[in-house]
Amino acid sequence: MNLALAAVLNHPALWRGGDCAPEPAAIPTGFAMLDRVLPGGGWPRNALTEMALTREGIGEIKFTLPALARIQAERRLVVWIAPPYRPYAPALVAAGIDVARLCIVRCRDPRDALWSFEQALRAPECGAAFAWLATHDERALRRLAVAARDGRAWGVLWRRPGQMARAACAPLRLALASQEGRLAVRVEKRRGADLAQPILIDLGRRTYGTPPLSSADTPPVSSPLSRARVVARPDPRTSAGHAPQPYRRLRAQATH
Fold this sequence. Notes:
Number of domains: 1
Strand content: 15-25%
Number of strands: 8
Shape: globular
Low-confidence stretches: 11-20, 205-222, 226-256
Oligomer: single chain
C-alpha cells in the first residue's frame, strides 16, 4: 500500500463498513465493554436507540442510569413517556438521578404517547426521552428520528416482551436478556460490522428493573420502576393548567 492510499484510508472522515461509524456526540454508557463496540463510544445523542426486552425486570432501567445522570449533570431534563410501571424515587435518587429533573408523561392512548415523545425529543431542555411504544408506523418513527436529530436528544424506543423491534430509522438496536445473572446486551444493529456475541454486563446485586407482573408480588425496594411509589407529572394535554413548568414549555413549543 502506497503512502497516499494509506493517508486516505486513515482519514477520520472515512468510514469503512467493518468499523464503527464515527459519532462525535455520543454519551458514555457507563460500561466500558459496551462503549468499545458502540459508534462513538456510547449512546447516540441525536438519534433513536431501539431496545427490545425478552423479559422485564432484568435490570434494563439500571442499565441506562449512568448515562441519564450525565445528561442531568448538563442541566437537561429526562422525560419518560408512558412507562409500564411507576418510578420508585428512592432507588432513582440512590443511583444519582435528580428526580426534580425527571418528568413522567401518562398518556390516554398511543397517539398521545407519540405526540409527547416527539415534543420531548425536540425540546432544547430535554436531553433524553424514553418511550414505551408498540408502533411500527415507519412514517411516525422517521418523524421521531428527525425530532431527536433536531433536538440533539438521546431517544430510546422501548419494545416490551413480544413486541418486535424493527424501526428502520433507529441506527442502534439492542436486544436485552438475562444470562447467568448478568445482562446480556446483543447489538443487533449498529453503524458497523455485526457482532457475533452479546456483551455481558454485571449490574451488581441490586435490581433496577420493572417488578413482577403479578400484583401479589412485592417489588424490590431498589427498583426504580415500582407500583409502590410514584414521581408523576400530569399529562400536558389534559392538565395544562396544573402542569409543572417543564411541560408548560414543551406544550408551548408544540403549538407554535
